[in-house]
From TrEMBL:
Superkingdom of the source species: Bacteria
GO molecular function: monooxygenase activity
InterPro entries, sorted: CrtA-like (IPR049574)
Entry protein name: Spheroidene monooxygenase
Key words, A-Z: Monooxygenase, Oxidoreductase
Length: 239
């Protein structure tokens, strides 16, 4: 049975540095609350990073996120009024929500396939790419050393609208979120850029990951303040 969800949302909050302690408290208390929110199939609270080096020193302590897989759009509409949504809104100085349709997904997250087995389909507008991995502790340093050339290439890639690192640990991350103007730009970087192709080639031989997931989504809407996402260009979907 195909359990591909109709809607996935990515919520991003920018908080002032003075609210760091409150943000860390929410990261400790809210994972279970998020999962118990009515209509949530799968939910993760995430720390974020600049996406330039992916080591612990690149954490962005002013930006936090939640990735949520929903039973239905109606259930997702209630997130802002939920205890988790209200709590983050109280300390956020800006926020944004991306509404996403899964297009492709490969791998697992916490032993699950949260985005099911998407059927693909044509996408004419912006797409979001999500990579997530649980690093093998003995391979983490090697992985972090390999990332900077790829991160530098990503920053300059044509068609990139936004990008940042993500992870379940408040002061680290093992993944990326990147938003692209259209699928052609994403494919050009993922499969044709030499630095990224080199990293892909090294992955099976280096054994960096104990668990990994790669997913692609159609961006159906971006709601809120896009500066919270680090948006770098226009020409994207309107809410």
């Amino acid at each position: 049975m195909n359990t591909t969800p109709e809607l996935v949302t990515l919520h991003v909050w920018r908080v002032p540095r003075a609210a760091l302690g409150q943000a860390l408290g929410r990261m400790a208390r809210h994972p279970g609350r998020l999962r118990r929110t009515p209509g949530v199939r799968f939910g993760k609270l995430l720390g974020t990073g600049t996406g330039t080096g992916f080591g612990p020193g690149d954490a962005d302590l002013t930006r936090w996120a939640a990735l949520v897989v929903w039973d239905s759009p109606a259930a997702a509409a209630g997130f802002d009024a939920s205890p988790v949504g209200r709590s983050w809104a109280r300390i956020a100085r800006s926020s944004a929500r991306l509404e996403l349709r899964p297009v492709t997904s490969r791998g697992e997250w916490s032993g699950r396939r949260p985005f099911g087995d998407p059927a693909g389909g044509r996408v004419d507008g912006p797409v979001l790419a999500l990579t997530r991995a649980r690093l093998r502790p003995r391979r983490a340093l090697t992985f972090w050393k390999a990332v900077p050339p790829v991160a530098a290439a990503l920053h300059a890639a044509p068609g990139l609208l936004a990008r940042f690192g993500v992870g379940e640990a408040p002061l680290g991350w093992q993944g990326t979120v990147s938003v692209w103007r259209d699928p052609t730009d994403l494919v050009a970087f993922a499969y044709r850029h030499p630095e990224h192709r080199a990293a892909i080639t090294r992955t099976p031989t280096e054994g960096w990951y104990a668990e990994e997931l790669f997913a692609r989504f159609e961006v159906r809407a971006v709601v809120g303040d896009r500066s919270a996402l680090g948006w770098v260009a226009d020409g994207d979907p309107q809410p």
